[in-house]
Write a structure and sequence with these properties.
heterodimer; A: alpha/beta; Aconitase, domain 4; 8 helices; 33% helix; B: alpha/beta; Aconitase, domain 3; 5-stranded parallel β-sheet; 20 helices; globular; disordered N terminus
């Protein structure tokens, strides 16, 4: 165990219904004009929130929630890590969704932000739980890939590589990748295109 | 020859004859479709490899303890928006860029396209530009800035320089990195933390995707372009259909396409959910590459060609899935909704939510509401306010030529703001040599400098209020073009040009024949 190991997270939930919510909606492009991620939290879902007063991120009862519950293909579109960074800075520590867009998912992993997928039925139940009682706590057990809520166990999925990276504390990949420096150089030497295709 | 013999035997086993074997060989589709659909799995063990398999194997440094692959990245492209924080992390760690000569930076997202005088009027854009300039100097990275003559959209300049080559791996902090797959490269978009990883180690921790072959067969109708093909593919397979997959595009339509058309196809793989998409390299690829600045030269080019050819998927490669789309059945596509899968052929009506699968009905209705469209309405005839030709999807010279042909001698409709933004300085220079800039200007288009511009509106080129934009770009997300309530209709450059002239969505095929 190192201090980067993430084996569980717990907190109240904020439900965000709807599929195909793209990263432009999570953080509009005008807020990408920056050289740090600081301050992005205030702008999460800004345009959606301005157009919909009852957007969950506007509702008092969900303030303080740390687990975001979403639908399918969450985080599609742009690769901007500003999207999960803005959610994290808003206060989100983990996301449970019916499915995730791939780049968004890998950005979350690279930040140590766990993402669980659940089937449609359980996704709907989690939406209902959170809407019925925003004070209910969910406990995400990353080692066992289950969610405990209301005394129930809901099974969740997480790819085994992602799970290991989180639980073993290797999600910040730079150090791990640097370990294979010799092998990396060796591989580079074997690639014809890095050696001007000389035989 | 052993392979051919195996295939012949396979064919006999399945069809009991040899007569159609040559035809069978010619249509890779039937081989793949048959393999895919066949119930006999004992052949799996003998199957060949896809390009993805080969490139993945060649770039695999090791298997990580997590089970992911440590994948070597042959070319790292960098731009100003997603990299500053990554460079800051490197500084914090006190480590250099591992392969600066395999790293290339340019500036595209935030550059103004009217006046490029420094300092930029937008001080945040100026700050980002300075930040990238300083980082490139500090870490010894080639930077194609505004004074280089080489600046442009990162996905336009890679191919233009000959840096994008078959069989290599490419990463860039931009989702449209899939574009480079047109050359048979495995290329994907990454976020900032992964940019840090690639800068520091030239590697990524990543899992290998599954592979789906998408075959577009037959011939396209006249006036139907690569953009229509990819919009149709996304419409068929959905915006989430590609999650977990790499897309391999093939079939007669793709085989006949130029490199620029192939770039348009692969560019939008990500809109279908596929992190990367590619096309097997062939003679079209090789002739495009020959003589480019960063292509292998002389004898090395011949060696390279041999290597490149071998990276293509084997005839008997195994796919996780195969899909076929009938080329002649594809019409000029226009999106009516808020994701790139929500499209119709220009002469058809916007579908009703009740015609959709139940799970898509809510987002269908949300899209109609946002766009202020009604189901049953024809997309043709929809008035527009703005026309935008450009982007990494359709900002290359062939796109401008097609649009100019339609525009020549005509005028942009009254009240329409129309922009042409070349994908790179080189594209702009070529267009000017051909007089395309004058054709556009005379018609009432604004001829701009190279950049991403109104594709994502990080620079001053933005929609206002509820404006509707006919756009050759790649995303029609809510607020994408700079106004939170602005509306985007994606279509081919030919269709954008025609819409600009008519002031409304029209069938460009009718304009050409006038």
């Amino acid at each position: 165990m190192n201090d980067q190991c993430i084996t569980f997270t717990s907190g109240t939930m904020i439900p965000l219904r709807g599929d195909d919510i793209d990263t432009d909606r999570i953080i509009p492009a005008r807020y990408l004009r920056c050289v740090t991620f600081d301050g992005l939290g205030a702008h999460a879902f800004e345009d959606d929130r301005n157009q919909n007063a009852s957007h969950p991120f506007n509702q008092d009862r969900f303030q303080g929630a740390s687990i975001l519950v979403v639908g399918k293909n969450f985080g599609c579109g742009s690769s901007r890590e500003h999207a999960p960074q803005s959610l994290k800075r808003w206060g989100i520590n983990a996301i449970i969704g019916k499915s995730f867009a791939e780049i968004f998912f890998s950005n979350c992993l690279a930040m140590g932000l766990p993402c669980f997928t659940v089937d449609d039925k359980n996704g709907e139940r989690l939406f209902d739980f959170a809407e019925d009682d925003p004070s209910v706590e969910a406990y995400m057990d990353i080692v066992k890939s289950v969610i405990r809520v209301h005394g129930e166990e809901i099974s969740a999925n997480i790819p085994s590589g992602t799970q290991k990276s989180l639980t073993e504390g290797s999600w910040n990949a730079t150090a791990v990748l640097l370990e294979a420096e010799v092998e990396t150089q060796k591989l580079a030497a074997s690639l014809p295109y890095l050696n001007n295709f000389s035989a | 020859m052993v392979l051919i013999e195996q295939l012949r035997q396979f064919h006999i086993d399945y069809f009991g004859d040899t007569v159609n074997f040559l035809l069978f060989i010619r249509t890779r589709l039937s081989i793949r479709g048959t393999l895919r659909n066949s119930k006999t799995y004992e052949f799996q063990g003998k199957m060949g490899k896809t390009l993805l398999d080969k490139v993945w194997d060649a770039h695999s440094v090791r298997q990580l303890p997590s089970g992911q692959t440590q994948l070597f990245i042959g070319l790292h492209l960098v731009h100003e928006v997603t990299s500053p924080q990554a460079f800051a992390m490197l500084r914090e760690l006190g480590i250099p860029v591992k392969f600066p000569d395999r790293t290339l930076a340019t500036i595209d997202h935030i550059v103004p396209t009217d006046s490029q005088e420094r300092p930029f009027r937008d001080h945040l854009a100026e700050e980002m530009t300075r930040s990238l300039t300083d980082s490139c100097r500090e870490f010894d990275i080639t930077f194609y800035d505004l004074y280089s003559g080489q600046q442009g959209i990162v996905h336009v300049i890679g191919p233009e320089k000959g840096l994008t080559q078959p069989g290599i791996t490419i990463a860039c902090g931009d989702s449209h990195t899939s574009t480079h797959g047109a050359f048979g490269a495995i290329a994907f978009g990454i976020g900032t933390s992964q940019i840090r990883d690639v800068l520091a180690t030239q590697c990524l921790a990543i899992s290998k995707p599954k592979i789906r072959r998408i075959v577009v067969s037959g011939e396209l109708q006249k006036g139907v372009y690569a953009k229509d093909v990819i919009l149709r593919i996304i419409h068929e397979l959905g915006v989430k259909g590609g999650i977990g997959y790499a897309y391999e595009y093939g079939g007669a339509v793709i085989d006949r396409m130029s490199m620029e058309e192939r770039l348009t196809i692969c560019n939008m793989s990500i809109e279908g959910g596929a992190r990367c998409g590619y096309i097997n390299p062939d003679d079209t690829t090789f002739s495009f590459l020959e003589g480019r600045d960063d292509s292998p030269q002389g004898a090395a080019f011949e060696t390279a060609k041999k290597y490149w050819r071998e990276t293509a998927s084997d005839l008997d490669a195994a796919y996780d899935d195969t899909v076929e789309i009938d080329g002649p059945d594809i019409g000029p596509m226009v999106t009516w909704g808020i994701n790139p899968g929500q499209s119709v052929p220009v002469d058809q009506k916007i579908p009703d939510p009740s015609d959709m699968p139940e799970e898509d009905q809510a987002s269908h209705q949300e899209a109609l509401d946002f766009m202020s469209f009604e189901s049953g309405q024809l997309i043709k005839g929809q008035p527009i306010n703005v026309a935008f030709i450009g982007s990494c999807t359709n900002g290359r010279i062939s796109d401008l030529r097609i649009a100019a042909e339609i525009v020549k001698g005509r005028k942009v409709a009254k009240g329409i703001r129309a922009l042409v933004v070349p994908g790179s300085m080189k594209v702009a220079q070529q267009a000017q040599r051909e007089g395309l800039d004058e054709i556009f200007s005379e018609a009432g288009f604004e001829w701009r400098r190279a950049g991403c511009s109104m594709c994502l509106a990080m620079n001053p080129d933005k929609l206002k209020g509820r404006e509707v934009c006919a756009s050759s770009s790649n995303r029609n997300f809510k607020g994408r073009q700079g106004s939170p309530t602005g509306r985007t209709l994606l279509m081919s450059p030919a269709m954008v040009a025609a819409a600009a002239l008519a002031g409304e969505v029209v069938d460009a095929r009718e304009m050409v024949s006038q």
